[in-house]
Amino acid sequence: MTLLEEIERHPLCGDGAMGTLLIERGVASHACFEELCLSRPELISQIHAEYRAAGARVIETNTFGANAVRLGRYGLSNRVNEINWQAAQLARQATKGAFVAGSVGPLGVSLVDATRQGIDREDCFRTQVGALLEGGVDLIFFETFQDLDELLLALHVKQSLHHCPAICSLAANEDGSLPDGTSVSDAFAKLAQHDAEIVGVNCVNGPEVALRLVEKFAPSETPLAVYPNAGIPRYLHGRYIYDLSPEFFAQMGATMVAQGARIIGGCCGTTPAHIAVLSKVLASA
Q1: How far is CA 125 from CA 43, 122, 229, in A?
Q2: What is the CATH number of domain 10-270+277-283?
Q3: Which of 11, 53, 58, 249 would you label with 121, given CA atoms 20 to 30 Å apart?
Q4: Strands 99-104 and 139-145, how do they pair?
């Protein structure tokens, strides 16, 4: 059964955060998390396996910033193919029975700066998405986008390469708008017009904010994915701490399903403990 067929029948549980969990496990916050797929594959595989054991059915690759622009800041722009292919393989091998989603984030450079620097944004997305597809992912997860035009470009590139589904997820403000003033509802409508199979929101301050966005902007026809943070972090002893309990996170997830969400997972601050409780709640939703 395909992902789209499954979410028609019942909600699916996604996985949780990768970056904040790596920091919690001793990785320096300034490190290139994506490069760990090469230098510490056992660590990445272990995290994938923990999320799968917790009940996640959609597992994201450790490739959020694995594009030429972001990797270039670490001197790794020539290893885009290698990192993304390896990341897909690690997720595939560690999570039998789950759908593997190739995580693709924004390039981290504006259109104006990209033009000035001679960066071909379309080629950046094509290289990363192509390597993820070659590595064996089942779908592409475009996440934490705040520029609708950049997201539409990334979606177009994916569609030119493969027919697999794509989740197109926005990081909106609490009022449901993007930085340029575009509303989430208008963005969802535009994405649907461009044949996005699933739309969503992620990385908002917490599940309460995410629920308000779902209640106000949930599309009537296009399936919705929601991946909120584990609340608002507080800074303590040199690190950010997320205090939201797994139980409350899961309760809010169930409410989002009641409002129409079909895939629920976690973003910053969420852990396998959050996903374990969430998956049990969603199983009975």
Answers
A1: 26, 5, 25
A2: 3.20.20.330
A3: 58
A4: parallel
